[in-house]
Amino acid sequence: MNTWIMGLMLTILSGGAWAQPGTLTNATVTDRTPISDPALAMSEVSKGWVAFRMPVIEGTRSPCCWQGNWNSNRAVGCSLLTDHHSYGTRRDSPLAQNVIAYARMSGGSLKAVRIVGEDCPVDGGGAEVTWIGATDDTASLEWLDSVARSSRHDASDAALYATALHASPVATKNLHALVTDGDSGLSEEAVFWLGEARGIGGYRALDELLDELPHGDTRQHINFALAQNDSPEALALLVEISRNDADPEQRGNALFWLAEEYPEQAENLLLDTLAGEKDEEVLEQAIFAISQLPQRKATRILLDLAQDPEQPREIRRQAMFWLAHSDDDEALAALEELLTR
Fold first, then answer.
1. Nearest-angstrom CA–CA distance, 35 and 33
2. pTM value?
3. Could you count the other beta carbons within 10 Å of the beta carbon of residue 317?
4. What are the two backbone dihedrals, phi and then psi, of residue 264, each rounded to the nearest 5 degrees?
């Protein structure tokens, strides 16, 4: 009997501890965990905060708020009373399995959304918080999509961020739909999150979007998103774009991001582009991309190009131009010596 009673007490205590929004303190919490739909919960709360838990994609670092310098090791947590400029994740942030979404209601309308990791300390500042616990994936993603499309800027950004982190594969489909829906106004942001947060699923979506989107800024933004994606397939696709895409602007833009994010792989590719590319604008972008390589490498290649009599005059001129704009003293000295011959 004593063992049974102890077990029952532990179950009750653990249930009470679990029925809390992460590490929230200084708040009055009302437990409404039978509700699994955020939209339903918010329809019943005219004032205060509604909080719920969502599973996140593997490899997600716990988002939180930081004090002062971004490189500081002092994590101080977030507040429901104030906005935080030093917010996000760092390389040393703990891995997360879930995040907590806080939605502030006033007069029956949504006013703000905050997304934090379960381990991130949150000061409620005396707020009233309705906690609904784990939510249905479909219901939470539908609510996030509605907020992203219809809310003011800050809440929309937070909803997009939460969608990008969500563990369900449906989140990738929702971001894809935001890209192709020209009326959403969220195309480039959704493209970014597909690359930044969605892994191999995001890569596949970006690959599809290359065929679906017309030439232009949003399609070029796919290059940047691929450069942020952590799958090897993303790098291979970015290389393929730089070589063979039908849009010269897309090719040139891909060269830039290859130089920025993959300088070791980009060097030979950029030199091959100079040897085989016919479009003048792409050639200019290739020279510019070379100038963005690590400083010593960029100086060496640009100087070689500027001094090579077999290079076309325009390539030599562009190489000298970017040498002149370098912060490398060695590059400037070499250029001065070249010009005084």
1. 5
2. 0.87
3. 12
4. -65, -45
